[in-house]
Amino acid sequence: MRLLRLTKIVSVSLRFGLDQMILDHAANTRVGEWLRRLLPRRSFAESRGARLRRALESLGPIFVKFGQMLSTRRDLLPLDIADELALLQDRVPPFPTEQVLAVLQTEYGRPATEVFRNFSLTPVASASVAQVHFAELQDGTEVAIKVLRPGIEAVIAHDVALMDTAARLIEALWREGRRLKPREVVDEFSRHLEDEMDMTREASNCSQLRRNFTGSPLLQVPEIHWDYCGRRVLVMQRMAGLPISQIEALRAQGVDLKALSRAGVEIFFTQVFRDGFFHADMHPGNILVAPNGQYVALDFGIMGTLNDRDKNYLAQNFLAFFRRDYKRVAQAHIDAGWVPAHTRVDEFESAIRAVCEPIFDRPLKEISFGKTLLRLFQTAHRFEMEVQPQLVMLQKTLLNIEGLGRQLDPDLDLWQTAKPFLERWMSEQVGWRALVRHLKDEAPDWAATLPQLPRLLHRALNDESKARELAHQAALLQLLERRNRWLATLCALLALALAGIWLH
């Protein structure tokens, strides 16, 4: 079966001219020389990015998802290809109702008709990994049920194995291929798919995001019904709203699109900088707008996280960026360990200045925050910056948010909208506010530790006393050992002397 699948991949690649893309990029390599002898030169009306996108669509949903993930790796791919891959849509035909009911029967140990008062057999959404049905609980609560596609684990394992084989060949046969780190990209993709195939993990992501935005006037997150969730089934509150891509329908409903675009920016930066936990798949298909104008988030399979080190890195960079202190931006990268310690700060500073300085001479509404961040990452990559997956996800999400915001409001000034929030957040991260916050965070531990200090001090003194005693005993043993060696030597000399006397 793997051989048949590999044959199809080769056939599709030739049909869409992917071999020509390899020829273009491997002209002076062994692979290029071999392909030139084997394959004729052909021309195509479509761009290389469009041909690659169509090839992935022909290969099926797992390759579509792989293309979507590749579109986020703009630190590795040419921008024309990344932009084209971003157009991939993860839409596949739904799987049969009988299979849906079989999954639910296996999960609950009884028929779906006994679990739910009402269950819609017609799916409302279908993707490569799962599909969604509407239902009602026995008490009449309306829910959405996400059911994992049967047999998807084997399909994914099979296709990922083929991708890994291709990645190894690229690294072995194409010198430039090693720079693209194809095996690392496939590994990253595999980890994302593993997360998406566990519905309990997605449910926990949703629950965490809902808790973070409890009482928020900006964002609604569905409630999880944990008693009905399992590894293959997720049951959550059914949400009402219009897809955010339906601009005219939103306008007809009286939604303030400018306010909606600003709210989207605030939601994003709140997730990133306040919580360090953000929705990393914010394309229009995953966002509704409620009748009251609030955002509604859906699909929580891919989330991004930032630790304190990441947030501190971002704080230092943004603070220095506002002040046009490019040397500090360069130093922040080196201090974080993301570019080698031997990097010359002045050279790195000059490269960053070339990226950032031009935007300050343009009207703010013409500045693309996402693309500026992207160019910074690309510049850092030239200086051997290690790829940070969490920052790549952040950059991809920021580009999505910015594109969505400008779709709602073409005059959206993302920089001006974000700047007050970022300045307020940075004042909390750097300076006396940060000190007060850290003291508050540490206070519970101190309160628990203070009453134990006398006992801990007594134990430490005892331990120190025991340590001194052991050290003294060790010194005595060393002294005795040295004396014993001297005595042994003396005895040996005496024995030799006696033996000499006896012989004489």
From TrEMBL:
Q: Matching InterPro entries, A to Z?
A: ABC1_dom, Kinase-like_dom_sf, UbiB, UbiB_bact, UbiB_kinase
Which pathway does it operate in?
Answer: Cofactor biosynthesis; ubiquinone biosynthesis [regulation]
Q: Which SUPFAM superfamilies match?
A: Protein kinase-like (PK-like)
| Residues of the ABC1 atypical kinase-like domain | 88-332
Query: Keywords for this entry?
Result: ATP-binding, Cell inner membrane, Cell membrane, Kinase, Membrane, Nucleotide-binding, Transferase, Transmembrane, Transmembrane helix, Ubiquinone, Ubiquinone biosynthesis
Transmembrane regions listed in the UniProt entry = 486-503
- Name the Pfam families for this protein: ABC1 (PF03109)
Q: Which family does it belong to?
A: Belongs to the protein kinase superfamily. ADCK protein kinase family.
Question: What is the protein named?
Answer: Ubiquinone biosynthesis regulatory protein kinase UbiB
The gene behind this protein is ubiB
